[in-house]
Design a protein that fits this description.
By secondary structure, the chain is α+β, with helices and mostly antiparallel strands. The protein has one domain (4-265). The chain has helices at residues 10-17, 48-52, 56-70, 81-90, 104-111, 129-132, 138-147, 154-158, 164-168, 186-190, 205-210, 226-235, 240-243, 247-258; strands spanning 4-5, 22-23, 28-29, 33-38, 97-101, 122-128, 176-179, 193-198, 216-221. A 4-stranded mixed β-sheet has the order 1-9-6-4. It has a 3-stranded antiparallel β-sheet with strand order 5-8-7. A hairpin with a 4-residue loop joins strand 2 (22-23) and strand 3 (28-29).
Length: 268
């Protein structure tokens, strides 16, 4: 792609990851980007709802309605649909949300976390969420402006719309926004996580971004660099043990950390 960068070394990769993060007005490094790492550069940037296939557009409301019906009410900070949507995504329900992080190193972890993909180029999508707000409908732009924020919270979205159907009706054109979830658990906090949210269930974020090339770029992670990156991330404590607190994350980290290198080329 036109906006792709391919580093040839760890040092060059770090330069790309922190590209355009200097804020002249503050005279500090304050990144306007969010990041998503994928282990395979050929993976499409689409939601888990679209990946579900079939009549996923019609199924969206049934999935969410039944999740809300059967979920533990005590696990939700309040009854906002956007809180429900965030926790549903967090626990693996197919939704139109896509996971992102403010941390380029966390994104780099996810681009190099799957040993079965160490012979495949990975990718990190870098999206300027501040510039992305220029494409929001007027009502949402006003909320952002009045709050002095660049991303939405469930509370902010509820001021304009409290349902997916109302969100879609805000504009004739598809749009994307970024939603910060409540701090539901340590995983969200440690991953410095947020979500992208397309205005329609069929919204293909990758295509939408390619229609707006000025707000994003991609970093292709060469397969030949993946082992070095993985080892240096482990040394920096960017691991499953930290990003997925609990025994599952601990076990995943230990399995990968103590396995011989050639085992990943056979079976994991």
């Amino acid at each position: 792609m036109k906006n792709d960068f391919i580093p040839s070394s760890w040092a060059e990769l770090m330069d790309f990851l922190f590209k355009d993060t200097w804020d002249e007005s503050l005279e500090r490094y304050r990144s306007p980007f969010v990041y998503r790492g994928l282990s395979d550069a050929n993976y499409e940037l689409i939601s888990s709802l679209i990946r579900l296939g079939g009549a996923y557009q019609a199924l969206e409301r049934h999935l969410l309605r039944n999740f809300i019906k059967y979920a533990q009410r005590t696990s939700i900070p309040n009854e906002s649909l956007w809180n429900w949507l965030a926790i549903a995504q967090h626990h693996g329900l197919p939704t139109r949300l896509i996971d992102w992080t403010y941390s380029p190193l966390v994104a780099l972890h996810f681009a190099t976390a799957n040993p079965l993909k160490f012979n495949t180029d990975g990718v990190i999508w870098c999206v300027n969420y501040v510039k992305g707000n220029l494409f929001l409908p007027e009502q949402l732009s006003e909320i952002i402006k009045n709050e002095g924020s660049n991303v939405f919270t469930p509370y902010m979205l509820d001021k304009v719309c409290n349902s997916l159907s109302k969100l879609e009706k805000l504009s004739e054109n598809e749009f994307n926004l970024f939603l910060e979830p409540p701090s539901l658990d340590d995983r969200i906090v440690n991953q410095h996580a947020l979500f992208s949210l397309m205005s329609t269930s069929s919204g293909h974020l990758g295509r939408w971004l390619n229609e707006h090339p000025d707000i994003h770029f991609r970093i292709i992670i060469p397969k030949d660099l993946k082992w070095e990156i993985r080892d240096k991330l482990d040394q920096a404590n960017i691991t499953e043990r930290v990003l997925f607190p609990g025994l599952d994350g601990l076990s995943r980290w230990l399995k990968r950390h103590y396995s011989p290198k050639n085992i990943f080329l056979q079976e994991y």
